[in-house]
Design brief:
single chain, alpha+beta, six-stranded mixed β-sheet
Length: 227
Protein backbone atom coordinates (compact mmCIF):
# COMPACT_ATOMS: atom_id res chain seq x y z
CA UNK A 1 0.00 0.00 0.00
CA UNK A 2 1.34 3.43 -0.97
CA UNK A 3 0.47 6.40 1.26
CA UNK A 4 0.95 9.95 -0.09
CA UNK A 5 3.14 12.07 2.20
CA UNK A 6 0.37 14.61 2.74
CA UNK A 7 -1.88 11.84 4.11
CA UNK A 8 0.74 10.36 6.43
CA UNK A 9 0.13 10.47 10.16
CA UNK A 10 2.16 8.48 12.68
CA UNK A 11 -0.85 7.10 14.53
CA UNK A 12 -3.52 6.87 11.84
CA UNK A 13 -1.22 5.33 9.22
CA UNK A 14 -0.05 2.60 11.57
CA UNK A 15 -3.64 1.96 12.58
CA UNK A 16 -4.23 0.59 9.10
CA UNK A 17 -2.87 -2.61 10.62
CA UNK A 18 -6.20 -2.94 12.44
CA UNK A 19 -7.74 -4.03 9.13
CA UNK A 20 -5.47 -7.07 8.95
CA UNK A 21 -5.52 -10.28 10.98
CA UNK A 22 -2.22 -11.27 12.57
CA UNK A 23 -0.69 -12.49 15.80
CA UNK A 24 1.77 -9.60 15.95
CA UNK A 25 2.32 -6.29 14.17
CA UNK A 26 5.88 -5.14 13.47
CA UNK A 27 6.33 -1.44 12.82
CA UNK A 28 9.55 -0.01 11.38
CA UNK A 29 10.44 3.38 9.99
CA UNK A 30 11.97 3.73 6.55
CA UNK A 31 15.36 4.77 7.94
CA UNK A 32 15.81 1.75 10.22
CA UNK A 33 17.74 -1.29 9.01
CA UNK A 34 18.02 -4.70 10.75
CA UNK A 35 21.55 -5.44 11.95
CA UNK A 36 21.19 -9.19 11.40
CA UNK A 37 18.72 -11.91 10.46
CA UNK A 38 17.40 -12.49 14.00
CA UNK A 39 15.41 -9.29 14.56
CA UNK A 40 11.93 -10.82 14.41
CA UNK A 41 12.95 -13.94 16.33
CA UNK A 42 14.45 -11.90 19.16
CA UNK A 43 11.46 -9.58 19.44
CA UNK A 44 9.05 -12.51 19.52
CA UNK A 45 10.83 -14.07 22.50
CA UNK A 46 9.73 -11.13 24.67
CA UNK A 47 6.11 -12.24 24.33
CA UNK A 48 6.78 -15.45 26.22
CA UNK A 49 5.73 -13.27 29.15
CA UNK A 50 1.95 -13.06 28.58
CA UNK A 51 1.78 -9.57 30.10
CA UNK A 52 4.14 -8.08 27.50
CA UNK A 53 2.15 -6.27 24.81
CA UNK A 54 4.97 -4.32 23.11
CA UNK A 55 8.62 -5.16 22.44
CA UNK A 56 11.00 -2.63 20.93
CA UNK A 57 14.49 -3.03 19.50
CA UNK A 58 17.89 -1.64 20.33
CA UNK A 59 19.04 1.13 17.99
CA UNK A 60 22.64 1.23 16.80
CA UNK A 61 23.84 4.52 15.26
CA UNK A 62 24.91 4.56 11.61
CA UNK A 63 28.55 5.21 10.79
CA UNK A 64 27.79 8.83 9.81
CA UNK A 65 26.18 9.61 13.18
CA UNK A 66 27.79 12.44 15.12
CA UNK A 67 28.87 12.13 18.75
CA UNK A 68 25.61 13.61 20.05
CA UNK A 69 23.57 10.97 18.21
CA UNK A 70 25.93 8.22 19.38
CA UNK A 71 25.40 9.34 22.96
CA UNK A 72 21.61 9.43 22.53
CA UNK A 73 21.47 5.91 21.08
CA UNK A 74 23.86 4.51 23.68
CA UNK A 75 21.89 6.07 26.54
CA UNK A 76 18.37 5.28 25.35
CA UNK A 77 19.22 1.84 23.99
CA UNK A 78 21.71 0.13 26.33
CA UNK A 79 23.08 -3.40 25.73
CA UNK A 80 20.97 -4.92 28.52
CA UNK A 81 17.32 -5.89 27.98
CA UNK A 82 14.60 -4.81 30.38
CA UNK A 83 10.88 -5.42 30.89
CA UNK A 84 9.05 -2.36 32.23
CA UNK A 85 5.86 -2.20 34.26
CA UNK A 86 4.11 0.08 36.76
CA UNK A 87 6.52 -1.06 39.45
CA UNK A 88 9.36 0.69 37.60
CA UNK A 89 7.80 4.17 37.83
CA UNK A 90 9.48 5.05 41.16
CA UNK A 91 12.90 4.30 39.63
CA UNK A 92 12.57 5.17 35.94
CA UNK A 93 9.90 7.87 36.09
CA UNK A 94 8.73 8.94 32.64
CA UNK A 95 11.31 6.66 31.00
CA UNK A 96 9.05 3.79 32.08
CA UNK A 97 6.80 4.84 29.18
CA UNK A 98 9.61 5.11 26.66
CA UNK A 99 9.14 3.03 23.51
CA UNK A 100 10.13 3.53 19.87
CA UNK A 101 8.22 2.64 16.74
CA UNK A 102 11.41 2.97 14.73
CA UNK A 103 11.29 -0.77 15.37
CA UNK A 104 8.65 -2.24 17.66
CA UNK A 105 6.42 -5.31 17.71
CA UNK A 106 2.90 -5.25 19.15
CA UNK A 107 0.70 -8.09 20.32
CA UNK A 108 -2.14 -7.89 17.79
CA UNK A 109 -4.92 -9.06 20.14
CA UNK A 110 -4.22 -6.30 22.65
CA UNK A 111 -3.56 -3.72 19.95
CA UNK A 112 -7.02 -4.40 18.50
CA UNK A 113 -8.64 -4.59 21.93
CA UNK A 114 -7.60 -1.01 22.79
CA UNK A 115 -8.24 0.37 19.31
CA UNK A 116 -4.60 0.75 18.30
CA UNK A 117 -2.90 4.11 18.61
CA UNK A 118 -4.83 7.14 19.74
CA UNK A 119 -6.22 8.82 16.61
CA UNK A 120 -4.45 11.79 15.02
CA UNK A 121 -1.25 11.67 17.08
CA UNK A 122 1.47 13.03 14.81
CA UNK A 123 4.29 12.04 17.16
CA UNK A 124 4.99 9.97 20.28
CA UNK A 125 2.18 7.56 19.46
CA UNK A 126 4.49 4.81 20.73
CA UNK A 127 5.00 6.45 24.13
CA UNK A 128 1.30 7.24 24.53
CA UNK A 129 0.38 3.63 23.74
CA UNK A 130 3.06 2.31 26.11
CA UNK A 131 1.84 4.61 28.88
CA UNK A 132 -1.75 3.44 28.46
CA UNK A 133 -0.64 -0.19 28.42
CA UNK A 134 1.49 0.14 31.55
CA UNK A 135 -1.25 1.94 33.44
CA UNK A 136 -3.51 -0.92 32.33
CA UNK A 137 -1.23 -3.35 34.15
CA UNK A 138 0.64 -4.57 31.05
CA UNK A 139 4.38 -4.66 30.35
CA UNK A 140 6.70 -3.14 27.75
CA UNK A 141 9.85 -5.05 26.77
CA UNK A 142 13.09 -3.49 25.59
CA UNK A 143 14.96 -6.22 23.71
CA UNK A 144 18.65 -5.39 23.38
CA UNK A 145 19.30 -8.56 21.34
CA UNK A 146 16.96 -7.26 18.60
CA UNK A 147 19.07 -4.64 16.83
CA UNK A 148 18.52 -2.13 14.04
CA UNK A 149 20.69 0.60 12.61
CA UNK A 150 18.95 3.92 13.17
CA UNK A 151 20.13 7.47 13.79
CA UNK A 152 19.52 10.97 12.44
CA UNK A 153 21.48 13.84 10.97
CA UNK A 154 19.41 16.80 12.17
CA UNK A 155 19.78 20.49 11.47
CA UNK A 156 18.93 23.13 14.06
CA UNK A 157 15.69 23.74 12.15
CA UNK A 158 14.85 20.01 12.30
CA UNK A 159 15.43 20.00 16.07
CA UNK A 160 13.24 23.09 16.51
CA UNK A 161 10.35 21.54 14.56
CA UNK A 162 10.67 18.18 16.31
CA UNK A 163 10.61 19.62 19.81
CA UNK A 164 7.78 22.01 18.99
CA UNK A 165 5.79 18.95 17.94
CA UNK A 166 6.82 17.05 21.07
CA UNK A 167 5.82 20.01 23.22
CA UNK A 168 2.37 20.08 21.65
CA UNK A 169 2.05 16.35 22.22
CA UNK A 170 2.69 16.66 25.95
CA UNK A 171 0.42 19.68 26.18
CA UNK A 172 -2.41 17.59 24.71
CA UNK A 173 -1.48 14.50 26.73
CA UNK A 174 -0.65 16.06 30.07
CA UNK A 175 -1.82 12.92 31.88
CA UNK A 176 1.43 11.16 30.93
CA UNK A 177 3.50 13.82 32.68
CA UNK A 178 1.10 13.82 35.62
CA UNK A 179 1.50 10.07 36.12
CA UNK A 180 5.29 10.25 35.93
CA UNK A 181 5.40 13.34 38.17
CA UNK A 182 3.94 11.33 41.02
CA UNK A 183 7.37 9.70 41.32
CA UNK A 184 9.70 12.66 40.74
CA UNK A 185 10.24 15.91 38.86
CA UNK A 186 10.08 15.57 35.07
CA UNK A 187 12.46 18.49 34.55
CA UNK A 188 15.21 16.75 36.51
CA UNK A 189 15.21 13.88 34.00
CA UNK A 190 15.81 16.23 31.06
CA UNK A 191 18.47 18.23 32.88
CA UNK A 192 20.23 15.02 33.91
CA UNK A 193 20.27 13.81 30.31
CA UNK A 194 21.75 17.10 29.09
CA UNK A 195 24.45 17.06 31.78
CA UNK A 196 25.35 13.45 31.01
CA UNK A 197 25.64 14.37 27.33
CA UNK A 198 28.07 17.18 28.14
CA UNK A 199 30.19 14.87 30.29
CA UNK A 200 30.24 12.25 27.51
CA UNK A 201 31.28 14.80 24.90
CA UNK A 202 33.91 16.35 27.14
CA UNK A 203 35.56 12.94 27.34
CA UNK A 204 34.96 11.64 23.82
CA UNK A 205 34.32 14.57 21.46
CA UNK A 206 35.11 18.00 22.98
CA UNK A 207 34.65 19.75 19.64
CA UNK A 208 30.93 18.83 19.73
CA UNK A 209 30.32 20.66 23.02
CA UNK A 210 29.21 24.01 21.47
CA UNK A 211 26.69 22.26 19.22
CA UNK A 212 25.42 20.20 22.16
CA UNK A 213 24.79 23.34 24.21
CA UNK A 214 23.08 25.04 21.27
CA UNK A 215 20.89 22.02 20.54
CA UNK A 216 19.88 21.67 24.20
CA UNK A 217 18.88 25.34 24.25
CA UNK A 218 16.86 24.95 21.04
CA UNK A 219 15.11 21.86 22.43
CA UNK A 220 14.22 23.64 25.67
CA UNK A 221 12.86 26.80 24.01
CA UNK A 222 10.98 24.87 21.31
CA UNK A 223 9.39 22.54 23.86
CA UNK A 224 8.41 25.30 26.29
CA UNK A 225 7.09 27.59 23.55
CA UNK A 226 4.57 25.02 22.40
CA UNK A 227 3.73 23.39 25.71
Amino acid sequence: MKIPSYEFNHANTRNLALHYEADFYLFMTQDAMPCDGFLVENLLQAFEDPDVVVAYARQIPYENADAIEVFARTTNYPPISRVKSQSDLPVLGIKTFFCSDSCAMYKAHYFKEVGGFTKDLCTNEDMEFAARAIMDGKKIAYVAEAKVYHSHVLTCKDIWRRYRTIGRFFKDNRWILDEAAKYGKIESSGIGQACNELRYLLKNAPSALPRSILCSLIKFIAFKSSF
